[in-house]
Automatic annotation (TrEMBL):
Name listed for the protein in its UniProt record: CaiB/BaiF CoA-transferase family protein
Coiled-coil spans in chain: none
SUPFAM superfamilies for the chain: CoA-transferase family III (CaiB/BaiF)
Xref: InterPro entries: CoA-transferase_III_domain, CoA-Trfase_fam_III, CoA-Trfase_III_dom3_sf, CoA-Trfase_III_dom_1_sf
Keywords: Transferase
Native species: Pseudonocardia aurantiaca
Pfam families: CoA_transf_3
């Protein structure tokens, strides 16, 4: 990583997570320079390797979420495998996990044991409902968390059952919080170390507890305050945002769609002028957002009638010229062709084995946030299963081939 901005260089993370939540946190730490050692089960590895697998042996979903990491095979069902985990913990700053609460404890790898091995370790735990409370033992994926967290009730059309967004957004949000919590406590750990009069962080302070449902709930803005203050229960509004108008998606003459956000008072007047409806822009009932929300159907119809007469590019050009926020609804192909993403290095091409013979250049999303002017480079895609077992177990821990075989369920990589 010489010459590359890497603010987390020197931090070593042990990732015991599967699927999306903990691996997303690990990916963020790895993106900014942390050495992330991902522990996977023998044979199959992280189940994400087979999700959306169109060809080959490893999905692009796995390659994306586990980029910039090292893969080590360990059999955590064996005493030897668990012993190696504890040995690795001695050399790490952080442990990430997203097993069902109680799993690590049953394996003899609970926080108290980890603390006994490394009293500086930050332990970041992600679960469906958190490590405490009446639902702590209940399993759950992001779909359940999005429902219990209140998000699912808000997504979709009002006359249809709730739907979900097209990605595991609950897992990803939880991963973001986990990464933030981890960095926060790493920072606090260093602050205490620099102050001779301060006590080291306690185990409680070094344990980060992220619940999927709480992570989702935290994104819902004033949902709960509006309910408790005014008795308001928000419902699904389709492409609209509750209480804000006009802001929606509109179909253009060429079959493409655009999003138009004309909900600011001054913006609304400019928007009405562009679409040839200055009468609405001058209507006193529509000068404030409350009136526009009451007449949202009328406004959406007027805007939709205008967009239907022009192709997407002309719609966007006229709105841009008038200073009205608007944008195209992109497909993956649109994203790859977009000059703004390209200018900030937000689609990066790396050679990947896809099962089609020779490796091909595959586009991956860049690293967010940007430090400087463009995205930092993605150093490597999600690794092949066990690709770094020898490097880590032999190089870092000094294990011989027989010890590696015992810890990995018979896998001898060298």
């Amino acid at each position: 990583m010489d010459g590359v901005i890497a603010p987390l260089r020197g931090i070593r993370v042990l990732e015991l997570g599967n699927y999306i939540a903990a691996p997303t946190a690990g990916r963020m730490l790895a993106d900014f320079g942390a050495e992330v050692i991902k522990v996977e089960r023998p044979g199959t590895g992280d189940e994400l390797r087979n999700w959306r697998l169109y060809s080959g042996t490893t999905s692009m979903l796995y390659r994306t979420i586990n980029r910039n990491k090292k893969s080590v095979v360990l059999d955590l069902r064996s005493e030897a495998g668990r012993a190696v985990v504890l040995d690795l913990v001695r050399h790490c700053d952080v442990l990430l996990e997203n097993f069902r609460p109680g799993t690590l404890e049953r394996w003899g790898l609970g926080p108290k044991v980890l603390d006994g091995v490394n009293p500086d370790l930050v332990i970041t735990r992600i679960s469906a409902f958190g490590q405490t409370g009446p639902l702590a033992d209940r399993p759950g994926f992001a779909a359940v968390a999005e429902a219990v967290g209140g998000l699912r009730e808000l997504v979709g059309e009002p006359d249809r059952p709730p739907v979900r967004v097209g990605v595991s957004i609950g897992d990803s949000i939880a991963g973001l919080y986990a990464a933030f919590g981890t960095v926060m406590q790493l920072h606090q750990r260093e602050v205490r170390r620099r102050d001779p009069g301060s006590a080291a962080l306690s185990l409680v302070e070094r344990t980060i507890d992220v619940a999927l449902n709480e992570a989702v709930l935290s994104m819902l803005e004033s949902l709960v305050p509006d309910h408790t203050a005014y008795g308001v229960s928000r419902t699904r509004t389709g492409g609209r945002m509750e209480g804000i108008a006009p802001s929606n998606a509109y179909l253009c003459h060429d079959g493409a769609s655009v999003v138009v956000a004309g909900n600011g008072d001054g913006i609304f007047q400019r928007l009405m002028a562009v679409i040839g409806r200055p009468d609405l822009g001058e209507d006193s009932d529509l000068r404030a957002n409350a009136g526009r929300w009451r007449r949202r159907d009328e406004l959406d119809a007027a805007i939709g009638e205008w967009t239907a007469t022009l192709p997407r590019e002309q719609v966007l050009g006229r709105l841009e010229a008038a200073g009205v926020p608007a944008g195209p609804i992109y497909t993956a192909a649109d994203v790859c062709a977009d000059e703004q993403y390209a200018a900030r290095n937000m689609i990066q091409y790396l050679p990947v084995e896809t099962g089609a013979g020779e490796p091909r250049e595959v586009g991956f999303p860049g690293i967010v946030p940007v430090i400087g002017e463009v995205s930092l480079p993605v150093r490597s895609v999600g690794p092949d299963l066990g690709a770094h077992t020898e490097e880590v177990l032999a190089g870092l821990l000094g294990l011989d081939a027989a010890e590696v075989a015992a810890a990995t369920g018979g896998v001898v990589p060298y």
